[in-house]
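Changelog excerpt

This revision adds worked examples to the README so contributors can see how folded entries look when concatenated. The first example is reproduced verbatim below.
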Amino acid sequence: MGIRGIYIAGSPMINAPWGADGYSPLDLTLLDPHLGTVRQWQDLITDMHSRGMYVIVDNTMATMGDLIGFEGYLNLSTPLSYTEHNAVWKDSRRYHDFNFGNVELNECDYPRFWGSVSKFASVQDRLREWRPSVRQKIEHLNCLQITMLDIDGFRMDKGLQITADAEGEWGKEPSMADASTFQSVMTTENTSDPSKYIREKGKTGFDSAAFHYSIYRSLKRFLGYDKRFPKKI
């Protein structure tokens, strides 16, 4: 059939039972046992490679599950507050690799929002991937996944919600393209005039087009798929 690549939708990492679509991982080191063991994944991917195929899996990058809520509003819509709300764990479940605090900082370095097209309106907990310490931990966990499963690349979920600079830094990480893993997560090298780009050479971000639900909804409307289908007679 000429198929050269297989995209497996949804993160293979552990999700809550009601998050079976695979886009709300709870632990980036633990495979979901419903989807197979490490050995079964390795055997599957080795077989695909032997047939000349590449394997792409989902990476949620900056979003996790839904374990954190705002104090006093765990079952209500949280009102806007310029002084912010305290965050609390919803129950005994925790992220082993990430935590949060309620201590206000005297200074806060926000990411460069211009050019980043970052928008977030989901129910998942949001990682601050623009902070180097957080991004480097995400990179390390992603590298572990590449080494463990020998996958060939990631499809970045909610791509337009990832801040542009963090995306570029993530893409340039040398260990993300180890030669033993089919050059995993390689990004196209920018050889054009660097003055025309918001980041320096080597921090090019995605290797192909980013995708977002709003674009998907716009395409549905443009193609007329948002209309009600006639009932069968």
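The second example, added in the same revision:
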Amino acid sequence: MSGTSNVGGPGVYEAGDQRNYKNSEINEKDRYKEGQPHSHKALDSKDERSIANKLGREEKRLNESAPEDPETTASKKDPTLPAKNHGNEPSKGAKIDAELAEEEQETLRKKGKA
């Protein structure tokens, strides 16, 4: 029946998407990597973990320290540094924070504690 139609090309009527692969071809393909990091929400309501397991995971998560990126570490030392690293002028608040930190260091030096 498909050979008698004059509408469209022959590819429209062929089942090109239905292919029977050999077992050797299936094994050579990259398999989907199971267990990707952050692929599941920790407190998913449809998760089948018990309440005890969820609580245990949350206790572990609270005890873990999150690794800080270098920009966060630099901003704790100098509040104007992140803006300078990106080629921008530091904000007014960052400038005030830097001035306050300098003043605190000076007062500590005068008192002999630093």
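Reviewer comment on example two: The first helix runs from residue 23 to 28. Residues 43 and 54 are 7 Å apart (CA to CA).
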